[in-house]
Specification:
Elements (H helix, E strand, L loop, with lengths): L1 H18 L1 H17 L14
Length: about 50
């Protein structure tokens, strides 16, 4: 998925600074699941939301 490719490194690095590298990998998976499950609530009035 394009959104994952675009943001995975930045989000992963952020999480690693917060919870450590090992835990960040698990939390990153949870982030993507939460994003996917809440996709119906995205505000599509922003052009970036449709990419």
């Amino acid at each position: 998925m394009e959104v994952i490719s675009r943001h995975e490194t930045a989000i992963g690095n952020y999480l690693a600074r917060r919870v450590g590298r090992q835990a960040a990998e698990d939390v990153l998976g949870d982030v993507w699941v939460a994003a996917y499950e809440s996709r119906a609530t995205y505000d599509l009035s922003y052009p970036e939301a449709c990419r």
